[in-house]
Amino acid sequence: MKKIALFVVGAGLLAAAGVLVWFFATTGVDEDTAQVTAPTLAPATNPDTTLAPGTTAASTTEPGEAGAGDGLFSLSAGTVARFELDEVLRGEPKHVVASNTEVAGQIRIDFGDLAASDLGTIVIGAQTFSTDSSNRDRAIRGPILDSTAFPEITFVPASIEGLAGAAEVGQELTFTVTGDLTIRDVTTEVTFEVSAVLVSDDRLEGSATAKVLRSVYGLEIPSVASVADVTDEVLLAINFVATPA
User: Fold this and answer.
1) How do residues 171-197 score in pLDDT, each as one tens digit?
2) Domain spanning 31-244: which superfamily?
3) Angle at 194 between CA 192 and CA 200, to 5 degrees
């Protein structure tokens, strides 16, 4: 009887292990995904942002002034999107940071009148967030974000507040951008706090942050014995680098 009982228990453990293997195999996402693309901004209509044919930014500006092409920049290498939250992992508090370099978007800077600048749609790949845990990564890409069905997170700007005057190299700019943030199939209005510096006439660097609630987007955490007390509030952030498109 003991042998039979041990056999049944062993078979049950093997079956449970098989279910776990199946879960992690099916909730993972192929990491060899194509880079996301974002809608391009329309051509500039302000002639002050366009250089004459055959000239360069350096040949048409005074030292310290800015001006590059038609002012159209694209997010480039060095741009990282991330989200941060807190949880209790195996009884210990844990600050989770999930980062992602699959980010696309365009910015048009009106060098003479920053208030006339424009920001295009920002697109972030939902299938490539990574943390310090491969199991957590699979849960984020699978049951949490359902990234197979919803492979992109988008932010469509509606208004920019706080920009004024002319652009100057080295000047730090702080402003807000409000727009529609879509995660999975839920869209809500979100305002990002932005800090940016025109490092040179062909490089813009900065960061943008906002806080949202998981519950608003229906982002449920899978029930796992080792994970508890995951915060509803999530910090969203983008550290960006933009260069002429």
Assistant:
1) 999 999 999 999 999 999 999 999 999
2) Lipid/polyisoprenoid-binding, YceI-like (2.40.128.110)
3) 150
